[in-house]
GCN5 family acetyltransferase (Brucella anthropi), 108 residues
Amino acid sequence: MSEKLFTSHWDEIDNLTPRALYAMLKLRVDVFVVEQNCPYPEIDGKDYDAFHLRILDGEELAASLRVLPPEQDGKPVKIGRVVVAADYRGYKLGQRLMKEAVAFAQTR
């Protein structure tokens, strides 16, 4: 596997460009709905309140997840929609996503 320089980006949904939002939602549908054959609504209305972590290879989305705020004071945040594009599996991006998300969650 060749060496790649991945970059991480945290954003709220309003700060994503239309292309970045489209890429993130498309990746989630491609993996969760098509590849994993889970015919459930992927767009669930929770993305508005979430913080989104995207890992990019240049301009290409390689992986992403979202962190939802606590539902009540004193409750933990929720990490979800963890996804790695098929072409980027094997680079330990899932591990990187989770490490960054846990570190982010500890600041909330």
About this structure: The beta strands are 6-12, 51-57, 60-68, 78-84. The chain has one domain: 6-105. The helical segments are 18-35, 93-105.
